[in-house]
Design brief:
heterodimer; A: alpha+beta; Heat Shock Protein 90; 3 domains; 5-stranded antiparallel β-sheet; 5-stranded mixed β-sheet; 8 helices; 14 strands; rod-shaped; disordered C terminus; B: alpha/beta; 11 strands; about 20% strand
Chain lengths: ~450, ~220
């Protein structure tokens, strides 16, 4: 757990809050228990006092006497903590437990009802004292009746209760903290799911967070999705603008070609040649840049979509058959109807278009396009019966990590485009000699990258 | 020969027009899609060179309108957008060829001539053989009423077979007809071509007579 993490903050917060609540509960309950003890003790003292009142008499000297002493043995034991005393202005009578001490005089005792107060008592102990004035005989003397109990016994009981309660509440605190931990874990679990989905989004910007999260997280996931949408739109716009810019250069290049031709007709052949070379170089650079930007776009946002290969290949062949070089060729397409490739349709169109057009340019009679899928990979290949590329040149290009457009056989740019696109779509491109005699270009997409590939 | 050049870039249009005139064409130039559509719809042209990025109406829409209005002259698309999605869209909209900018003017003229050559030279407009109907003007075909797009080679093979009423034609003879006597090619190429045609038309569209060769189904009836 990281310091400052949400989990720690929630757990600490819960633990402290529960602790404070339990401490307050402990204090309140102890006080209430103490009050309860005092009330019980007061009731007991009043009961004893009432028994005493029933036994009081005053002799002719005005000194109180008792017809019968209270039963509680503590009244007979010196300094037991439980005392009584009856007194008149002429004398007093007290429990044996008071020994040579006496209860304090009272200015608050009333005749009608019991009064209760805490007073410093005998033996330097605080007392809970109940007292009242009684008059045993009509017209006789007033007798102050007092019964007291040492407060220490009450405090002892309160402290014992407080200790046991504290132990129980500490246990409760542990249980509640564990419950809070479980609650925090449960509460943060949707955030873990969001984190996993954000990781997936980081890997593939076309991913989106699912909409099945808890209601409280929904604004966050919605905001992240909107941010991802905005980012993807910006990227798409930037790519579109780059492509538009590249395309926009093509028409001025065509206009320059027209100027070159005009220059040639006016006799400036040398200038026209230079212009033509510049136009060809600029055109190749634009084509290469367009292909690279497409490959970069795929790398930046790898697609999860798949394409059925055959209709796309048929469309490409339909175009190439109309070109001068393709018109007299046989296109032998052996691709299963259901073969799918883990590449978006427009990217597969560019990739296979570059390869088939290239093959058509060099084929003598035939271009063969094969497709297959196994449990490990799906594969497409294009081969022709043309002159092919020298194996040594292929090996050199591959060995030195050079670009395929540097092969120099004329196959170059188409192969370089296909190679870039194959690599961007996690395909492996291989150049071999075809059984037809020419070049065979194969691209295999491993099954790990080809979830949608259909084994044929 | 009349050609319509549809191009909004004046320099490019003038260059093509000059080259076409030098090649013997009578040339009209339209600089926007609306003008192009009107001219193509009201005049008879032997070929049209059509830019896609046009003001008012884009080139692809003009092309689709012409084709939907049964204007069948050959069309070559000239476009700055040379990616395969655009090319396929152009051909599927009814264009006969596609050339990306910048281009060699010589290549453009050669392609225009090729298109005209393919579209012309047929005395009969159509040939029927069983379920197959060949349109020799557009070099297209229908099989059992369903339009089928054919390559030049495929069309020539079907055209040859259609003229051999009830006769099986050997692979060698077909190769000689398609590629010329000097370089007749290999029989495997013909076999691959026949297989591709069977896939496009119907598995039974071309019969194989063992030891004799190929013939169109129903051509002898």
């Amino acid at each position: 757990m990281k310091a400052g993490s949400l989990r720690v903050r929630l757990l600490l917060g819960a633990a402290v809050a529960v602790f404070l609540a339990l401490a307050a509960a402990w204090l309140a309950m102890t006080l209430l228990f103490e009050r309860h003890l005092e009330h019980r003790a007061e009731a007991d003292l009043i009961r004893d006092g009432t028994q005493l009142a029933a036994s009081i008499a005053v002799n002719k000297d005005g000194v109180p006497t008792l017809r019968r002493e209270p039963d509680d043995a503590r009244f007979a034991e010196p300094a037991s903590g439980l005392y009584w005393q009856v007194s008149t202005q002429r004398g007093s009578l007290q429990s044996r437990s008071l020994w040579d001490e006496s209860l304090p005089a009272s200015a608050v005792a009333k005749a009608g009802d019991w009064s209760t107060r805490f007073v410093p008592g005998p033996f330097e102990k605080e007392l809970l004292l109940v007292e009242r004035i009684v008059r045993p005989e009509r017209g006789g003397l007033d007798v102050l009746l007092q019964v007291g109990l040492e407060n220490a016994s009450l405090h002892r009981a309160r402290d014992e209760f407080g200790d046991e309660l504290a132990l129980f509440l500490a246990l409760l605190w542990l249980i509640l903290s564990a419950a809070a931990w479980a609650q925090v874990e449960l509460g943060l679990r949707p955030l873990s799911a969001v984190r996993n989905e954000v990781e997936a989004l980081k890997r593939n910007p076309r991913e989106r967070l699912s909409t099945t999260h808890a209601k409280e997280i929904e604004p966050l996931t919605r905001a992240i999705n909107e941010l991802a949408d905005a980012r993807e739109r910006d990227l798409a716009r930037a790519r579109r603008r780059a492509a538009d810019l590249a395309h926009a250069l093509k028409t001025p290049l065509a206009a320059l070609a027209a100027q070159s031709r005009r220059a040639r007709t006016t006799g400036a052949a040398e200038a026209a040649d230079g212009l033509d070379r510049a136009i060809a170089a600029a055109n190749a650079a634009v084509d290469g840049e367009l292909a690279r930007s497409r490959a970069a776009a795929i790398r930046a946002a790898p697609t999860v979509s798949t394409s059925v290969a055959l209709p796309l290949i048929d469309s490409i062949v339909g175009v190439v058959e109309r070109t001068e070089s393709g018109a007299l060729l046989v296109f032998d397409v052996n691709v299963p109807d259901a073969l799918t490739i883990p590449v978006a349709a427009e990217d597969l169109l560019e990739l296979m278009g570059a390869l088939i057009e290239n093959a058509a340019r060099y084929a003598r009679r035939r271009v063969q396009i094969n497709g297959s899928a196994s449990l490990q990979q799906s594969e497409l290949s294009v081969e022709d019966d043309g002159p092919g590329i020298d194996a040594e040149l292929i090996a050199q290009a591959i060995a030195r990590g050079g670009r395929l457009d540097e092969i120099g056989s004329g196959h170059g740019l188409g192969l370089a485009i296909a190679s870039d696109l194959a690599e961007a779509t996690r395909g492996r491109l291989a150049l071999t000699r075809s059984a037809l005699g020419g070049l065979k270009v194969s691209i295999a997409w491993p099954l790990a990258a080809a979830d949608g590939a259909t084994a044929i | 020969m009349r050609a319509l050049i549809v191009e909004d870039e004046t320099d490019v249009a003038a260059d093509i027009a000059q080259a076409m005139q030098e090649a013997g064409f009578v040339v009209d130039v339209a600089s926007d899609g609306e003008d192009a559509w009107f001219r193509g719809n009201t005049e008879d042209y032997d070929v049209a060179i059509l830019d896609l990025g046009l003001p008012r109406i884009d080139g692809l829409t003009v092309l689709r309108r012409w084709r939907s209005e049964q204007r069948s002259f050959p069309i070559i698309i000239l476009s700055a957008r040379n990616d395969w999605t655009e090319r396929v869209a152009g051909i599927e909209a009814g264009a006969d060829d596609y050339l990306g900018k910048p281009f060699e003017i010589g290549e453009l003229i050669a392609r225009v001539r090729g298109l005209i050559r393919r579209a012309a030279g047929h005395t009969s407009a159509s040939i029927a053989a069983g379920k197959l109907l060949l349109d020799t003007n557009r070099m297209s075909a229908t099989y059992a009423g369903r339009p089928v797009r054919l390559s030049q080679l495929e069309f020539r093979l079907l055209h040859y077979l259609a003229h051999q009423t009830g006769r099986a034609v050997s692979a060698g003879e077909l190769a000689e007809h398609l590629y010329g006597a000097a370089d007749p090619g290999d029989a495997n190429a013909i076999e691959a071509l026949v297989m591709r045609l069977r896939r496009k038309l119907d598995a039974d569209a071309i019969e194989t007579r063992r030891g004799f060769g190929y013939l169109l189904a129903g051509s002898g009836e």
